[in-house]
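Input record (one chain):
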Amino acid sequence: MSQYIDIESLNQQIAIESAFLDKLIANQSKIMVGQSHLMNSLLLGLLTKGHVLLEGLPGLAKTLAIKTLASSINAQFHRIQFTPDLLPADIIGTLVYNPGDHQFTVRKGPIFSNFILADEINRAPAKVQSALLEAMQERQVTIGKESFKLEEPFLVLATQNPIEQEGTYPLPEAQVDRFMMKVIVNYPSMQEEMEIMRRNLSGEIHQEITPVIHQNDILKARESVKKVYMDERIEKYILNIIFATRNPTQFKLDDIADLIQYGASPRASIFMAMAAKAQAFINHRGFVIPDDVQFVAKDILRHRIGLSFEAEAENINQENIISKILSKVVVP
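The corresponding structure, as predicted from the sequence alone:
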């Protein structure tokens, strides 16, 4: 970049503007035990207007994490339980005929909220899942002939269970790509699970969460994230990672070339840069370092790499491929 950047002053400014996150994280820890990566990922989505897909076994606090985040912010929250008999109108709303004046009026659905929890999203058929697409991408909803803008902040946080095959529907690729991140939620450690067990037995886990920040704080923080400095070498590093998923042989990754059916889309480059800036902001830093890029890489890429039949036959997943790419691409 040609213009001079006063990194020290920017660093101090970002440290001040990101200080409120400590209060938000502390408030969430009153309910959440462990799952720091999950909570960090939700913050990344919140700071970058990026929707998040959470995948994990039942009972790993996916829903609790989202509800706790929403409760910590003075914003509207709706939970939608996705089921096979759900209709698009149940999400976005519909036109209702009024016999008194012979007119149709709009009845808005639960999508008109700041936080949308799409619980077990893969239980509903494609036509219902696609009802979210316009809202996620355009941040508006069309009912009949009218389009309605959604209020910011607007964030879709979806959960899905990986083990349930019967009665589930795979998400359309176009919809999956619109999720900024796909986060894998793992089991807690033994020490964390001991604390979870004790809190549930004592009733602490059911305490009320009071808002500690306002939604305007999030909107201001999003503008601050844009100011985080990203050097041209970091930009090139991100592009090298993305292009390595498309043309592995150019990066001396011949051993994974036959394992990839298709690489990451241009959205991956955009989202990885945004997430890296937000990660620096969460760490109260005014500039991006390679560690920020590496931290967000798997969540950004794991749902954007298509595996070949060879990869599936050898039990190689996206995680293995991303790790191989990160180990091979030169770090600035």
